[in-house]
């Protein structure tokens, strides 16, 4: 199964969009470096629509209690409900529990079209 | 009745008991105190502040009514009587002394210099009168934790004693995981000491006390949860990976609910504590043990359900709480759990917990 979801320039770096692949709702993300990623539009936790959340960074692991280091700006998707953080560029894995992740789809290009497939 | 049957059969249980309350009168500590501290006790009748609004309603107050010493001193203040009534009777391999400070010097709300002097005197008394006199007994370093630097000095002073196995902190109104107290944990780790926490007189309802003792006593696990929560999320175990925590006298049945809740909250709120790099339940499994007393009097099946929910059978250590009124008998308090698990809970989990016990094994009779 594959679906043309948009034109390349319809999604700018730092933006997300809702789309469908067949009957399935998906979220397409474009990270600040220009990469495209597509995931199931349901949080792995309780199914909230990820497209209603925010694309942001995260406080990455530090070695000292009380120390914050905010990185990965534009590479983290946060769920609109409970705020679960998913790493877009690491297969959509949850930062707190990498065993859990958003289902990711393949993204390819046909001329100017962005194509999502299983 | 059941204890009498055990006595008749002369059966012993070579346990490692992680909560024995030895005690001292103020007069016992005077030889270990300098002035002005000694004078404040002898001349001014100074005693530590008290908090509980109720008596402890055992038949003899805090202690087993049969544990008063033959010469009428308070229970737990006489080694030979403790040997007779507990250590020899049960067949202890080892016992960990946790003291009967009431409250602890670390619970004092002022005059921390006196708290430090008392803790230091008590450590010397404990070594002279208990640890050096019975090979079965191991001890706890008492400190005035309100001022971490003085606590560190005391840990440096007595922490290397071969029979001091842990630093004792009270559970009251201070969450000890706060980085302000981390020098204590650093010093403990340096001396191969673990941390033990035991409630003294913690308020449990938003800093206040419930109306009745039974209410206060039933929700004691709440106050223990606060401390585990604090130690884990403030990164103590990530910062001091060799450190472990023994939670004494709230049982263990609250642990699965706490572990599950902490994992669930961490998944959403990890961003606030980025120094925590794995699920809290994993940290607890590696770093926290729970003493059994007061037993929740579970069936074998119920007991195993809790073990399954905790995800480990190496986190539970037996304790009697001798000589207190809610003492648990090593022969009666737990259901039958099979030889392997009983071996862990009554001995090996505690031996593995304390580095200074790991290479010791007393020949014992069964």
Automatic annotation (TrEMBL), chain A:
Q: Which InterPro entries match?
A: Rieske_2Fe-2S, Rieske_2Fe-2S_sf
The Rieske domain covers: 3-116
Q: Which UniProt keywords apply?
A: 2Fe-2S, Iron, Iron-sulfur, Metal-binding
Say if the entry is tagged with keyword DNA-binding: no
Q: Name one Pfam family in it.
A: Rieske
Q: Which residues cross the membrane?
A: none
Q: Which PANTHER family match?
A: 3-PHENYLPROPIONATE_CINNAMIC ACID DIOXYGENASE FERREDOXIN SUBUNIT (PTHR21496:SF23), FERREDOXIN-RELATED (PTHR21496)
Q: What name does this protein carry? A: Rieske (2Fe-2S) protein
Query: What organism does the record attribute this protein to?
Result: Lentibacillus halophilus
What is this organism's lineage?
A: Bacteria, Bacillati, Bacillota, Bacilli, Bacillales
Automatic annotation (TrEMBL), chain B:
Superkingdom of this protein's organism: Bacteria
* InterPro entries, A to Z: ACMSD, Amidohydro-rel, Metal_Hydrolase
Provide the Amidohydrolase-related domain boundaries.
54-355
Swiss-Prot/TrEMBL keywords: Lyase
Q: Which Pfam families match?
A: Amidohydro_2
The protein's name in its UniProt record: Amidohydrolase family protein
Give the organism the record lists: Lentibacillus halophilus
